[in-house]
Design goal:
Low-confidence stretches of chain A: none
Number of strands of chain B: 4
Strand order of the largest sheet of chain B: 1-2-3-4
Strand content of chain B: 5-15%
Mean pLDDT of chain A: 92
Oligomer: heterodimer
Helix content of chain A: 25-40%
Radius of gyration of chain B: 26 Å
Radius of gyration of chain A: 20 Å
Largest sheet of chain B: 4 strands, antiparallel
Number of strands of chain A: 12
Order of helices and strands of chain B: HHHHHEHHHEEEHHHHH
Number of helices of chain A: 7
Distance between the termini of chain A: 24 Å
Distance between the termini of chain B: 38 Å
Number of helices of chain B: 13
CATH architecture of the largest domain in chain A: 3-Layer(aba) Sandwich
Strand order of the largest sheet of chain A: 1-9-8-5-4-2-3
Order of helices and strands of chain A: HEHEHEEEHHEEHEEEEEH
Strand content of chain A: 15-25%
Number of domains of chain A: 2
Mean pLDDT of chain B: 89
């Protein structure tokens, strides 16, 4: 089920990838700076896009500035290629670039995402583009941008450790479940965008380049390939990710992030992979006798 | 079967068709023409041009039609179009003292050179529904006024400046190219030019409320409307090849200058300070609100107490834009089930640990991941 999509017809009224070339150059310069200073938020002249702020304008601008005619684009939202927002963004790039789009993670050269990192490991040469609503990890501790920029400059991150400690003291757990703060390359604190903390380990030492774009807040940042990304924790409260007693109802996976589906008014539930491409792939392999169905075992 | 989000592409295309149908309404009613919107809803057109930061009544009317009358959606449409336009350069600064006036009032002097001109205003209309508008009717053209207005009328603040009673606000040395909010990210401290650009594009409702808050004690500006004027101006552009400026068009603007008392400091004596508001088209409420907020944002620089919301640069300038705000508020419509699932998992685990019965049956394991 890893289909190459029939590409939407290219609309020649717009420059390739919508943005004009000088805007792309401005963005690429900002991205180069972001790659050079891993985890540092680089301000950029965010443009007004024909999609609403908060719906991926940052990620779209990043993708638009790096995409070339030979690229193959995958767009996911909540891990799925089929959510309306993912479809809409894929259609947008089809319309303004005419490049091939795909649902296959290995086949993609660029993966634009909201809220997930694919389960299939990424390879060197691939680029992940994250849509970021609020780039500042310290924002809930300090609302002023002037203050938080100073805190980053001084690596003054004690407040975040205090917050996590207070969570443990109050609830017995760190109560942050997504957008879980990380330290990149032992220097900058970074928001990994609202991915569940389940996906945080995939950022660490990834062979793929990770680019983050926040359109409304006008910031880009990056994690270059093979960079150390450490999720904040304490020696006696190590970082943990979500686990389920259930497995995927469709492919039987026990390793993937599961979505909970409510089936009826009585509250009957089932669990399925949030990464639809990974799940479909496994089901196809099972039908071909490739891998055993763990659920049946 | 789990197919809740399948078929999204077809659903999107169908939503386009349903939206077209909704916008068009009863086919028995003639379709709205852009000329009707432009000519008979000029205040809506003005607001869309002002907050869309693009002076084009025809495109603003198109945006209003396409947005089915939703002003913020129309502003968004116009902005998304504006961002694709190449820019050829900057026009010469406009001189509002030389505008062809439709309206001009001052609340600070009983009479002023050139006089008070009410012009087209809702101010004294008594807000009784005019049932004669229920029926279509032919309206006669307005005959020309008996006396022509002066072609140039000094602004009230210029008259105050002659007596050195108001802050001068000279053009900065070397007249540097202005900051461009649509090309550069806002940073702090924000220059006055950046602030005014932000306020000029800002949502009218937001500025109205922020300005209102300063009048009710959240910030203390004691403002007077020194002058409000509305009219038309020619826009000129200096053409390199010709060596002189040529007129490239005419725009309507509304300008408001508020004056507030300033007690003075160790460095300077007491004087009036200004708050400035300018909008495309006819936008009196917006320009007055903008002037109040502009003045409130100066409080810190003037050494006044600046601890109210309207004095807070980051608070005002980061939250004034309705396209940004509307997008981010409405992004909550997008699926968030992955993050919600993460919250659900934590909540169940914490309830299980407290021995809550409902959660116990759904007990979740907790495995450490080697760091």
């Amino acid at each position: 089920m890893t289909t190459q999509h029939a590409t939407v017809e290219r609309d020649d009224h717009y420059n390739f990838a919508y943005l004009d070339e000088s805007t792309k150059r401005m963005l690429r310069r900002a991205l180069l700076k972001a790659v050079a200073i891993p985890g540092y938020q680089v301000p950029f002249g965010s443009r007004e896009m024909p999609l609403p702020y908060g719906w991926g304008t940052g990620g779209i601008q990043v993708t638009a500035s790096i995409i070339g005619r030979g690229d193959v684009l995958k767009v996911i939202d909540q891990g799925s290629d089929d959510t309306t927002n993912a479809i809409n963004i894929r259609r947008f790039f089809g319309r303004v670039t005419g490049v091939a789009t795909t649902e296959s993670t290995p086949a993609a050269t660029i993966v634009q995402t909201r809220h997930r990192i694919p389960e299939t490991p990424l390879a060197a040469g691939q680029i992940m583009v994250f849509q970021v609503p609020i780039p500042e990890p310290l924002r809930w501790l300090e609302p002023s941008e002037t203050e938080t920029r100073t805190m980053h400059a001084l690596a003054e991150y004690g407040g975040m450790h205090v917050k996590l400690y207070e969570d443990i003291a109050q609830h017995g757990h760190i109560a942050t479940t997504y957008d879980y703060p990380v330290i990149v390359n032992d220097r900058y604190m970074m928001r990994p965008s609202p991915i569940p903390k389940f996906d945080n380990p995939k950022l660490d030492g990834s062979p793929a380049l990770m680019l983050f774009g926040a359109g409304r807040e006008k910031r880009v940042y990056a994690v270059p390939p093979y960079t150390r990304v450490k999720s904040l924790d304490f020696e006696d409260h190590p970082f943990r990710v979500e686990t389920w007693t259930e497995c995927c109802d469709l492919c039987g996976s026990r390793e993937s992030y599961l979505d909970e589906i409510i089936l009826d008014d009585a509250g009957t539930r089932r669990y399925v992979c949030s990464d639809t491409e990974y799940c479909n792939d496994r089901q196809a392999q099972q039908r071909a006798g490739g891998i055993p169905d763990e659920a049946a075992a | 079967m789990y197919v809740a989000v399948k078929g999204g592409e077809r659903a999107i295309l169908n939503s386009y068709r349903m939206l077209d149908d909704y916008r068009r309404g009863d086919r028995g009613v003639p379709e709205l023409g852009l000329d009707q919107i432009r000519e008979q809803m000029p205040l809506a057109v003005s607001r869309v041009m002002a907050e869309g930061s693009l002076y084009d009544p025809q495109l603003a009317a198109l945006a209003l039609k396409q947005a089915a009358g939703d002003v913020i959606e129309a502003v968004f449409l116009l902005r998304a179009y504006r961002t694709t336009l190449s820019r050829y350069g900057y026009t010469q600064p406009i001189d509002t003292g030389r505008m062809r006036l439709q309206r001009r009032i001052s609340s600070t002097f009983k009479d002023i050179p050139g006089g008070q001109i009410l012009g087209p205003t809702y101010d004294y209309t008594q807000r009784l529904l005019d049932f004669s508008l229920l029926a279509q009717r032919e309206a006669d053209a307005l005959p020309a006024g008996e006396e022509a207005l002066d072609s140039a009328m000094s602004r009230v603040t210029d008259l105050l400046a002659q007596d050195d009673l108001i802050d001068a606000e000279p053009v900065p040395e070397g007249d540097p190219e202005p900051f461009d909010l649509t090309r550069q990210p806002l940073d702090f401290p924000a220059s006055r030019a950046a602030r005014l650009q932000n306020l000029a594009r800002a949502d009218e409702g937001f500025l109205l409320s922020m300005g209102y808050s300063t009048q009710r004690g959240y910030g203390n500006t004691h403002p007077f409307a020194a002058e409000i004027r509305y009219g038309a101006l020619e826009v000129e552009m200096h053409i390199e090849e010709l060596g002189f400026a040529v007129t490239v068009g005419e725009i309507e603007v509304t300008e408001c200058q508020m004056v507030s008392q300033f007690a003075g400091s160790a460095e300077e004596g007491p004087k009036f300070t200004r708050g400035y508001g300018l909008t495309f088209g006819y936008g009196e409420r917006k320009s007055m609100s903008m002037a109040l907020v502009d003045r409130a944002l100066k409080a810190g620089d003037l050494g006044e107490r600046a601890d109210s919301p309207a004095n807070d640069h980051e608070f005002v300038l980061y939250h004034s834009d309705n396209v940004e705000a509307s997008g981010f508020v409405q992004h909550l419509k997008l699926p968030h089930y992955v993050d919600f699932q993460a919250n659900l998992e934590l909540l169940r685990r914490m309830r299980a640990e407290r021995g809550e019965p409902e959660a116990a049956q759904n007990e979740l394991m907790d495995e450490a991941v080697s760091p």
